[in-house]
């Protein structure tokens, strides 16, 4: 018997009635309906790798959605790339809710994941449940992400028992930058790698539907990916993960300064935007813009 799946906006539908794959220009295949955490699990089972990209506003959310990116992360990296903070630590839950709402307005089918910011869940299960509940109720995100293993395993179990999908995040966890002594590759030593593996298994057992692996050696990422049934999503973790994530601004060449080794810039939008703004300035100065076709006449 075909399983039943809830389709946002149109009630219950037979899964078999839904068009299962829509591919945009040969990019990531994605169901022609809202992506669920179960779709991601099925992709891992089929050996299909996928991309996750961050977004912080409605237009980037809408474009990623249109391009068939299955998971859009409203990462707290937006604190730095969008809001200009020096780290991810200052961003508040209210600020994250504001940006997640905007992204979710744009991204209709992609699975929008709202990052829980520093200080909104580290106090334990009930604080985490309160923050995650706000994230789902007030934004349109359908999952949350939180950083860390150890005590966060029980927090993850608490949220998933409450019906909130959780994406874990292990390795270089930027919210713990002071504890780590900066942005350093993690789990290089055997004991730390074993601990990370145990944390990943703990998170998966606690119900996490995916785990971001950031800033760890390739071999450690491979061990985790082989050990857990849920997709691993790498960033600076080498090629042996089920998916990869990049930050919008890094991927598109909007970030300035020294970039981490793992960043690949697929475009140089900073230079494109600079040329456009310079041309606008020059045309305004010369009186070339607006031309008659840009006016409503006399
Ligand atoms: O905040 C973020 O953008 C993230 C990704 C880099 C995984 O956590």
Task: Characterise the protein shown here.
- With 298 residues, this protein is an alpha/beta fold.
- The chain contains eleven helices and twelve strands.
- The strands form three sheets. The protein has an eight-stranded parallel β-barrel, surrounded by seven helices.
- A hairpin with a 5-residue loop joins β3 and β4.
- α5 packs across α6 and α8 runs parallel beside α9.
- The radius of gyration is 21 Å and the shape is globular.
- It starts with a strand and ends in a 12-residue tail after the last helix.
- The N terminus is likely disordered.
- The site of 3-methyl-2-oxobutanoic acid (KIV) has 12 residues, from β10.
- 3-methyl-2-oxobutanoic acid (KIV) binds next to β10.
Q: How many runs of DSSP E, i.e. beta strands? A: 12
% residues in beta strands: 15-25%
Number of contiguous helices:
11
Strand order of the largest sheet: 5-6-7-8-9-10-11-12
Question: Helical residue percent?
Answer: 25-40%
* Average predicted confidence as pLDDT: 91
Q: What Rg, in angstroms, do the CA atoms define?
A: 21 Å
SSE topology string: EEEEHEHEHHEHEHEHHEHEEHH
Bound chemical compounds: 3-methyl-2-oxobutanoic acid
Uncertain ranges:
1-24
Q: Topology, please?
A:
Blueprint: E1 4-7, E2 11-14, E3 22-23, E4 29-30, H1 37-46, E5 50-54, H2 58-66, E6 71-74, H3 78-81, H4 93-106, E7 111-115, H5 125-139, E8 143-145, H6 151-161, E9 166-171, H7 177-180, H8 190-205, E10 210-214, H9 218-227, E11 232-235, E12 243-246, H10 248-251, H11 269-286
Parallel strand pairs: 5-6, 5-12, 6-7, 7-8, 8-9, 9-10, 10-11, 11-12
Antiparallel strand pairs: 1-2, 3-4
Helix pairs in contact: 2-4, 4-5, 5-6, 6-8, 8-9
The structure holds 3-methyl-2-oxobutanoic acid (KIV).
The site of 3-methyl-2-oxobutanoic acid (KIV) has 12 residues, from β10.
